[in-house]
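Structure tokens please, single chain.
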Amino acid sequence: MRILFALVIVATSCLALIRAAEPTSGWRGNQTGLWPNAKGPVEWSRIPKGAIEGLRCRANRPADAEAGDSTLVEKGLIREWLVLGPYPVADSEKNLDDDVMIREAFVTPTAGLKPIAGSEHTELEWKPLTSPADDPMVFGTAEVPWLDVGKAVGFKINQLAYAHTYLFSPRGGPARIVVDHGEGLKVWLNSREVYRQPKRDMALGYYTNLSKIELNHQVAKSPRFDVELKPGWNSLMLKLSSPRIAGHTDMRCHLRIMDPPSVPYESKNIRWMTELPARSTSTPILVGDRIFVMAEPDELLCLDKNSGKVLWSAATNYYEALSPAQKAAKPEFASRVDPLVAELRSLALLSRAGSTLESRATIVELRAKIQKTLLEIDEPRFNIPANDHFEAHFGIVGFTMPTPLSDGKHVFVWNGMGIAACFDLDGHRKWITRVETDHIVYGSSPALADGVFVAFFGKLFGFDAETGKLKWTQHRINKNVAAVLAAKLAGQDVVVTQAGEIIRPSDGHLLFRPRGLTTGDQGWAPPVILGDTMYSPRYGVNEINVFDFAGCEGVTWQPQHVGQIGTTPEVSRKPDGGWIDRWTAGSPLVWKGLLYQIDIYGNLFVSDIAEKKMIYWRDLKLRGFMHYNSVPVAASPTLIGKHIFLCDNQGTTVVIEPGREFKEVARNRIDTVLDRHLPLPAQETLTYSPPITDGERLFLRGERYLYCIAP
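Here you go.
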């Protein structure tokens, strides 16, 4: 049996080569993540050379001119502080400018230092405070890493307190600080006042608000101010107030420091980068010389792959899905909505020449105006039925999570609002169809099999790919994450769900459902199909079930359950013995008898398929950003040429050699700085989708830009 299974693995690896060469476009670019014949580069970079590069901080006064072992400032978050207080005042707003410490702007504190003689409350002394980190191992945190001075000094209304840190900038130069503060805040850099606001000013507050801001087309602006860092050590002093009256108990701030967008870069192997109108977690696809990519909340864009030029764009939303009869029934659509849509398209065209925060804000405000107008005209039709859970996660899910797909002649789009559409390669819409629902679910990438376009929206729907008309609804498929896949198993065209269920595309008949599926969360990663073999993940990286469908026929399939591949128990334990869920958002990579998986924390797991056991696991030391609307690693492992590419969401791609031992070939970084109006890392979020290739070039999808990687 073991010899037979080994032969199956060799056969599926050979079939993988054939499959990877087919012109399939969709999930992972080609559904397998295998491009063995590609010759793309393995090294690239785009690194800002400004004041923040190598920035470090320390709480105590530096003993010499060098940074020493001071703490690296990661993602713009300054963590090491000294605090002093509290100082009671009559009115915390009116008394914010009172120099209660005497020469407050010029103090250079160290731990244990007391205020100078003659000031009030000389019994106080400076004491250390370390603010929380952006911890990539804490799943789903909603609260930002506050610098909570009130908690450190003891909270009462009408009081002031100070926080101070030393910053070491190797190069010096311009920088920008973005901050939320619960009450009044005053800031000095090197004894110079750089910011003052006696009242509360907060736009983000919690990471869940990212979703509400985006879903409701809001423009949110936290306070921000520009500073000039000296080469070497700098002194940063904050003065915070508590509320004037009982109620709020805030005496804290959330501060990020970053390079300005004008920072210069050193780059390698970046052929071109094209600005996109908005983010998306979907994967770009290649069709001939064209790249198709999505952008929130409803745009499909077509780019020339050689230059990055945007050739055309199209929208797929509730309004576009109206039939001519539905539009004619309400003349207000033509008189009130059409002019706004035309204005939006005009602004979008102008922004392609180079957008600013202000121009992007104008587009967001116009989208809000369009949505408000639509609700006024026909609220039942245009109200988005999103529950609290979906709203809270919209900042990572979005409506454009589904990857578009192509048959080589057309591009098919599934928008998470429940809109299916088909376009020819020149942007002419062939059809558009809306599926009604009582609540929005997370979008999944669609599939195209046997002339049927299949999409999940609380149930599985099959549309005639030629006309867009609904052919069938499969109610038994009521849960799916990330993608449904098209495949050919046992010589038949089928559709495969994320959970490994097999559906006949012609009529939606359920052919096979794996045992043990429950209503609970069993994973997010779709399977990978090579030949007649399916590798189906469950419970993150902890379980892979292997099924052989050769010879299956009839209306009920009974594939051979070849085996189950699992991780060793210790990988699911923290150093303190606590349990850790090793979830993964990416499909596995199967190549030459080995199976590669990466969890959301950036740990690589490699298993021998024939022996059904894990060979090794490795912490890749990535830089991913984790919070309620951010997953450090989501992209599936990808084989390009002779190497495997592994990406986090902060622009790092680790390149390794396939095999039974870990061999790192390159560690690449794209650290593009974005102009932020919220206290988030300035680093562009890059990438949630895996790289794709045309055989010589790589393409990476970022929050703001699409990158072409080539010598």
